[in-house]
Amino acid sequence: MLNPTIPTEFRHLCRVGQLDRPTPGLAPGYVQANLVVLPYDLAFEFLLFCLRNPKPCPILDVTDVGDPEPKLIALGADIRTDLPRYCIFRHGQLIEETTDICEFWRDDLVAFLIGCSFSFETAMLNAGLSVRHIEESKNVPMYKTSIDCLANRTFSSPLVVSMRPLTPQDAIRAVEVTSRFAKAHGSPIHIGNPEQLGITDLSCPDYGDAVTIREGEVPVFWACGVTTQTAIARAKPEFAITHAPGHMFISDWRDEMLAS
Amino acid sequence: MLNPTIPTEFRHLCRVGQLDRPTPGLAPGYVQANLVVLPYDLAFEFLLFCLRNPKPCPILDVTDVGDPEPKLIALGADIRTDLPRYCIFRHGQLIEETTDICEFWRDDLVAFLIGCSFSFETAMLNAGLSVRHIEESKNVPMYKTSIDCLANRTFSSPLVVSMRPLTPQDAIRAVEVTSRFAKAHGSPIHIGNPEQLGITDLSCPDYGDAVTIREGEVPVFWACGVTTQTAIARAKPEFAITHAPGHMFISDWRDEMLAS
């Protein structure tokens, strides 16, 4: 009986088609990652976009051209089979969701593994901080902002942020705790005033679910990996693959291996 | 009268041909960077090599294809003119040293700015630690090791290290101080035994100058940016440009902006 809380066994269950569900809470303590797969002719420009916008797009690993093994963060893994669910895009349009991308794989594809907020949320919980959407069993609320990422000739995007409400004292502690996790979006990008980010209504997130903001709490905003998806939707590449929302890659790295 | 301790003025002096000397000690407190310029068709593979080997090759900035402006670390700068001296390589062979690369510039070139040890040496000096080669007015001793960097289909290299002798207590303090500067090679890769790195004679460095190791001191080894140069020498690209040894790019970033 395989144990999905161990990354190698989780990935094996995905590979043999026995696991198809969202990954929050699975393999606690291990780094989960967003997946983006693009043709080689866009790989340099996409990598440049990530390097210039490290808070929303922290690069954890990049595969060799045509090679599905992310050697840094999960030696022996195969990104074609080892995630529970994928989205296939052509010219920016979602054409299919699938649990295996072997039939879509090509020799010119490059896979990018990008840090996600689960690592710093675990650190917040360990520090005794509230993570409201987890308390309320919801998806984290995410908002498009009026801040533009640094663009290049192929990729551009508004910065997308996630929001967690905290008291001002806890917000300060959250800055301390999350700043150690630069490869998982790091410290917040804003505390307090959504309008400064061009967000007019916190109760209407662009992605995910609205959460309760209690008396005396302020909204705290972190850069969000969905920014890569909006960049791809804008660039409309001939072909792209991503993880299905919430269905992340689980690496062999421990959260603490990301921390400074 | 322009002041070379201010980065914009230092770069202007280079641009107008009035400054042609090594940069250690110039513009103290500002981040200096190694320069590598390669054709676009090698850019992705080189970036991958750097990302997989972040201790010797910490990426600070990458320019858009054909654009000589490093927009992240020095808005308005022009890497074709703003360094004091450059090396031009064809097929891995040094063919020329020059103070200006305008005549060599091409629309398909990409420039990489890579962190260097000056930032962490300043932090060491500020912490009261000895930096022997500075005390002895020498170049830092550097050694090829028997450790292979993570290679890809185009770039590979032995890890090159620099060495600074310290007492064991100071070596511990040096780990604390330099670990904050991940984008300037970060913490040491080894303390104590050169043979474990395949180094047989500390008095014969592969690059730079030997320095005195006093009674009770141990050699402390940091990953070194010369690793990128050995990778390029091995790959023998049709065309490449680097800074001339010791003649670095000086950015607008303060050393503390690199620190975690």
UniProtKB/TrEMBL annotation, chains A, B:
Any keyword Lyase?
Answer: yes
Which InterPro entries does this one have? D-Glu_cyclase, Putative_hydro-lyase, UPF0317
- Keyword annotations from UniProtKB, A to Z: Lyase
Q: Which Gene3D superfamilies match?
A: PSTPO5379-like, PSTPO5379-like domain
In alphabetical order, the GO MF annotations are:
lyase activity
Family under the similarity heading: Belongs to the D-glutamate cyclase family.
What's the protein here called?
A: Hydro-lyase
Organism ancestry: Bacteria, Bacillati, Cyanobacteriota, Cyanophyceae, Leptolyngbyales
